[in-house]
Predict the structure.
Amino acid sequence: MGAAKDLDEQRSGDGRTPALGARDIAILAFERTWWKHAGVKEQAIRDEFGLSAARYYQLLGALIDSPSALAHDPMLIKRLHRVRDARTDARSVRLTSLDD
């Protein structure tokens, strides 16, 4: 592949974890912003990345599980893990209450 290697395929400085691609870094930067209303964020996702909100969140979910993302911005990734875990727990409680 040579010098034209895609950023997603390059290796980070330690040689063990894949380097983040430009889109991954842009997604993490986008997630650092705070949104007051969900609809505004979904429109910004379409404008910024040209993706549906569902696809964006699929990419984000995979990204926050990546060791490279954790190394890039540990505080953000840990916050996003907490948010995801809280949503998963809330969903579990709702589903459990439906079984009663």
